[in-house]
Amino acid sequence: MINTATPRFSGLSIARLVFSALAAAIAVAAYLLSMDFARGARLFPQAVSIVVFGLAVASMVVTVWRGRKAERVEDNAPETSDLTSDTSFKEVWPYLIWIMGAYLGMYLIGFFPAAGLFCLLFLWRVARMKWLGNIGMTALCLLTVLALGMGLNISWPLGLLPRLLA
Question: What is the span of the domain harbouring residue 58?
Answer without folding.
Answer: 1-87
